[in-house]
Amino acid sequence: MSLTLQHKDSPLPGLASGLAAGLIGAVAMTAFQALLARASITSGVSGRPSTEKAADQAARLTTGHSLPRSALPVAGEAVHYLIGSLVGGAYGMAAGLVPQVTAVRGAAFGWVAATVVDETLVPAFGFGDPFWKAPLISHPYSYVSHTVFGMSTEAARKLFLPFFRDVKTGIGIVRNGEQPARLQTEGSTRWRTLGLAFLLGATAGPRTNAPLATVSWAARLGLVDVSGSPLAFLSSKAAVGVLSPMAIGELVADKLPSTPSRTEPLGVGARAVSGAISGAALAGGRSPSAALAGAAGAVAATYLGYLLRTRLSRAVGRDWPVAATEDLLAFGGAALVCLAAIAPQDQDRGA
């Protein structure tokens, strides 16, 4: 079988979609292994997992100290998801250049990942036994688990790739001063609009004001059209002047120990309102369904973000690095969604 090279696309959408998809694949793989454990099916490997050993080694190299035993499980999870994301990123780039790497709906990629990571790199770095010493069951266990990883990563990549291609197109529109496209709330592209509204609302989970401030700037710059709608005020200088300092203030307040939990009723409610207004504004300011999608994204991200931040902060031992990452994801994510929203909706979306 000959390999077909493609050079028509920038590798960046493939890389970005692969990074996100690899994370999803790692989550799916973890869930699958949890189901196997319920059926008393394990890898047969005793002792600490290789991911915990890798996390501990990384801590010793960077800080000179081993991780506390209580932090190892969460740190091991972080390593697992990081590796999944990085491997997914490499896969996403490769898939854009050589479509054959997506063979068997991503299962072939999973088999390669199992061979390279579990069977080669893990023993090479001393995090596990070489394949001839490892329990026999560990090999099919690894390959079956990575089949789930590969197929889940490929499915997620195909979902994320159009989004990141739209982001790239949106950047080109802004750079070239072209006319932005407008989201449609009717017809075949309605679900795309609702999906983008959901994603924009989700950025309110980590930071309440992130989507509001971002969509207000987008409206002010003419990228989002809210004219003639009940949300037309978002494009005003006053709205930008109020929401921007509020967003900056939240970046500071979030780091204070006295700040209430985001999962308290007031915090959840404020995020839902922010997500609803932002989602509706992204769709032109008159779409109740986009408002509901934005609110749903905000509420879901509020609870999921709380769980992730709590676990990661405990693993890292400090909260501020995780909080700073949230800042980047919230405001960066909101900006990416607004850029994707201005891309034409009839462009080629092939994988």
Written description of the protein model:
It is a single chain. This protein is 67% helix and 0% strand. It is mostly helical. It has two domains: 11-165, no CATH class; 179-341, no CATH class. Helix 1 crosses helix 3 and helix 9 (265-282) packs across helix 10 (288-316). The longest helix is centred in the middle third of the chain and has 39 residues, at 138-176. It is globular and about 70 Å long. Residues 347-351 have low confidence and may be disordered. This is DUF1440 domain-containing protein. Keywords: Membrane, Transmembrane, Transmembrane helix. It comes from Xylophilus rhododendri. The chain crosses the membrane at residues 12-36.
Write a compact overview of the structure shown:
With 351 residues, the protein is an all-alpha fold. 67% of the residues lie in helices and 0% in strands.
Q: Rounded to an integer, what's the Rg over CA atoms?
A: 22 Å
Low-pLDDT runs of 5+ residues are: 347-351
Task: Tell me what portion of residues adopts beta-strand conformation.
Answer: under 5%
Main beta-sheet strand count, sense and barrel state: none
Domain DUF4126: 195-338
Keywords: Membrane, Transmembrane, Transmembrane helix
Transmembrane segments: 12-36
Protein name: DUF1440 domain-containing protein
